[in-house]
């Protein structure tokens, strides 16, 4: 297979703190023979495991970048044993334009793994992670939030995996992250996800959803900052003791696709439930008003399972096929 065209301006084998870029060749109208410069920081102190920490896999999710830009500016790594590779914004072009997917090629980073070395910018970045960064990695944390169109309760998550030892490791690391909620997550559409790529390589993987609506809050940022340290401590890379969440973490499960409430109408959402509410099967969740005329009765959407409302559509206008709610079982 063709070599990946990205070059790193840091040396992954070198001890110490290094700040630099992943240079993605991109010749455009505004920059002939130019490059996209993705910020990267590495902390390395002797031998030990490697953690790969990423944010903005989707460009409009901010807790990850905030926590990781903060982490990258630390100037004392005497409490680190091993290596921490920090990429605050994996899909940097999308991050710069406040978009979920890249404005350059329209590709969703989290549906294009393992990527292509001779593909478009997003595919090239994905290939670099798959073939250069992940083989060096023992544990990977990818910090997501809901983005502009979803709002989520703050949770860390792991997946059901064929390899039960790996599944246990991922769940333990997710728990150590110390978010208020801990989810065993079901993906409706796992093809091309970074998650699946990391897991297929046998690595320990933690993902999160820490808020959303295209912004962040002091509360969710604090969870991300604490979670990053907790994960590094759990991995044996950082000295220290875990800082747990103030209240006991609530464990959640998504046993099947009845957790997802898909909207089959277009209109104005009148919410009946809020994030964190407990609902029973058949409970009214929302009414969708037809906004083309004033004469229509709203369409009602109901819960298909007992559980907690963990994700809701963020903008008040919804379209057909949008994710309206996600409801998880409380374990
Ligand atoms: Ca996301």
Helical percentage: 10-25%
Question: What CATH first level of the largest domain would be assigned?
Answer: Alpha Beta
CATH architecture of the largest domain: 3-Layer(aba) Sandwich
**Helical stretch count?**
6
Q: H/E series, N to C?
A: EEEEHEHHEEEHEHEHEEEEEEEEE
What is the CA-based Rg, rounded? 20 Å
Number of strands: 19
What structural class results from the helix and strand content?
alpha+beta
> Which sheet architecture does the biggest sheet show?
15 strands, mixed
Distance between the termini: 45 Å
Overall shape: globular
List strands and helices in order, with pairings.
Blueprint: E1 7-8, E2 16-25, E3 35-45, E4 50-55, H1 63-72, E5 82-87, H2 92-96, H3 121-133, E6 139-144, E7 150-152, E8 155-159, H4 164-177, E9 181-185, H5 194-200, E10 204-209, H6 218-234, E11 250-253, E12 260-262, E13 267-271, E14 278-279, E15 284-289, E16 299-302, E17 307-313, E18 317-318, E19 323-330
Parallel strand pairs: 4-5, 4-6, 6-10, 8-9, 9-11
Antiparallel strand pairs: 1-2, 2-3, 3-5, 7-17, 8-10, 11-19, 12-19, 13-15, 13-18, 14-17, 15-16, 17-19
Helix pairs in contact: 1-6, 4-6
Task: Give a short synopsis of this structure.
With 331 residues, the chain is of the alpha+beta class.
């Amino acid at each position: 297979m063709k070599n990946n065209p990205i070059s790193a301006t840091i040396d992954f084998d070198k001890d110490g703190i290094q700040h630099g870029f992943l240079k993605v060749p991109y010749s455009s109208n505004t920059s002939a023979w130019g490059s996209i410069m993705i910020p990267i920081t590495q902390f390395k102190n002797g031998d030990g495991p490697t953690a790969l920490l990423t944010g903005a896999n989707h460009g409009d999710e901010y807790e990850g970048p905030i926590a990781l830009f903060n982490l990258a500016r630390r100037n004392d790594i005497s409490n680190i044993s091993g290596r921490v590779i920090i990429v605050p914004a994996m899909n940097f072009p999308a991050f710069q334009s406040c978009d979920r997917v890249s404005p350059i090629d329209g590709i969703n980073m989290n549906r294009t793994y393992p990527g292509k070395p001779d593909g478009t910018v997003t595919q090239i970045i994905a290939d670099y992670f798959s073939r250069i960064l992940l083989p060096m990695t023992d544990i990977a944390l990818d910090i997501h939030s809901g983005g502009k169109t979803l709002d989520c309760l703050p949770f860390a998550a792991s997946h059901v995996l064929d390899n039960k030892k790996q599944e246990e490791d991922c769940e333990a690391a997710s728990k150590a992250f110390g978010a208020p909620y801990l989810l065993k997550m079901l993906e409706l559409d796992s093809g091309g996800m970074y998650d699946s790529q990391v897991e297929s390589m046998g690595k320990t993987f933690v993902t999160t959803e820490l808020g959303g609506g295209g912004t962040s809050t002091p509360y969710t940022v604090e969870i991300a900052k604490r979670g990053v340290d907790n994960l590094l401590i759990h991995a044996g890379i950082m000295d220290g003791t875990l800082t747990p969440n103030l209240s006991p973490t609530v464990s959640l499960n998504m046993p099947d696709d009845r957790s997802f409430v898909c909207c089959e109408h277009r209109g104005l959402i009148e919410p009946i439930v809020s994030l964190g509410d407990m609902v029973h099967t058949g409970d009214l969740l929302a009414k969708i008003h037809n906004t083309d005329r004033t004469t229509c009765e709203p369409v009602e959407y109901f819960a298909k399972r007992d559980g907690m409302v963990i994700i809701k559509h963020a903008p008040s206008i919804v379209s057909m096929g949008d994710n309206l709610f996600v409801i998880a079982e409380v374990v």
